[in-house]
């Protein structure tokens, strides 16, 4: 499995990224993976590797590039010290709107690769990245065929950059998987999101995973739930196969 490290020039600077590709020669659909707030680390790359093994070119950009260099985070140490204290300054450098702006450069980069098949891509995001994946679908509706959010927060908030605001522009198939108990995505927000999708005629599936806590997809998180995570993988791969091949 190839893991190529590249640098992509965006409007705001140089964004480091990993590109994971299948072992066999050929061309495959592309998927952009939007990281959670604990940034690029071995677990994220392993998840991208698994996705690539299923037949996709997977781009994993470091969305904290505006912050500058930083050491990889150990989730257990971060949660012990205080999530907002450690990660807050980095999160302040990005957001849904900035990720969408960055994606213009990501798409241009993917268009230069001979191992990428077609112009349609998929997006998938975790936690912080969940809203980004949906936002990108609404920002580039003619490029994104599918967008997936796992335990994404604030998907239908009062903020101008809330993903649900872009529902009328979305052409992609959307899959949203929420945690059973998540302050960043409470039942009333989930309802607001699905109402926006219904009003806009978006093709979507939105579910709450019983017993799963925010972050359940990540094997290096204390709340990792293998049963729920494997369910998530099945749903994700089914969406991408249906929309990208």
UniProtKB/TrEMBL annotation:
UniProt xrefs under InterPro entries: AB_hydrolase_fold (IPR029058), Dienelactn_hydro (IPR002925), Dienelactone_hydrolase-like (IPR051049)
Record's keyword terms, sorted: Hydrolase
Domain Dienelactone hydrolase intervals: 17-243
A molecular function GO annotation: hydrolase activity
Keyword Transcription: no
Pfam families the UniProt entry points to: DLH
Claim: Nucleus is one of the keywords in the record: no
Top-rank lineage group of the source organism: Bacteria
Name of the protein in question: Dienelactone hydrolase family protein
Origin species: Sphingomonas populi
Native organism taxonomy: Bacteria, Pseudomonadati, Pseudomonadota, Alphaproteobacteria, Sphingomonadales
């Amino acid at each position: 499995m190839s893991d190529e490290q590249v640098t992509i020039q965006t409007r705001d600077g140089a964004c480091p990224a990993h590109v994971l590709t299948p072992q066999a020669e050929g061309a495959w659909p592309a998927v952009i993976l939007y990281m959670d707030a604990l940034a690029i680390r071995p677990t994220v790359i392993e998840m991208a590797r698994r996705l690539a093994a299923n037949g996709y070119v997977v781009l994993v950009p470091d969305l904290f590039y505006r912050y500058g260099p930083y050491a990889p985070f150990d989730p257990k140490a971060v949660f012990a010290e205080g999530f907002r204290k450690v990660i807050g300054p980095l999160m302040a450098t990005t957001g849904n709107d900035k990720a969408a702006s960055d994606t213009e450069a990501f798409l241009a980069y993917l268009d230069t690769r001979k191992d990428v098949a077609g112009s349609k891509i998929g997006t998938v995001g975790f936690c912080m990245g969940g809203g980004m994946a949906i936002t990108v679908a609404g920002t580039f509706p003619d490029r994104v065929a599918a967008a997936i959010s796992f335990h994404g927060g604030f998907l239908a908030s009062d903020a101008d950059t809330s993903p649900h605001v872009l529902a009328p522009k979305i052409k992609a198939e959307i899959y949203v998987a929420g945690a059973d108990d998540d302050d960043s995505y409470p039942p009333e927000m989930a309802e607001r999101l699905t109402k926006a999708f219904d009003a806009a005629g978006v093709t979507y599936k939105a579910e709450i995973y019983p017993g799963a806590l925010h972050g359940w997809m990540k094997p290096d998180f204390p709340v990792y739930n293998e049963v729920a995570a494997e369910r998530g993988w099945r749903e994700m791969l089914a969406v991408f196969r249906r929309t990208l091949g």
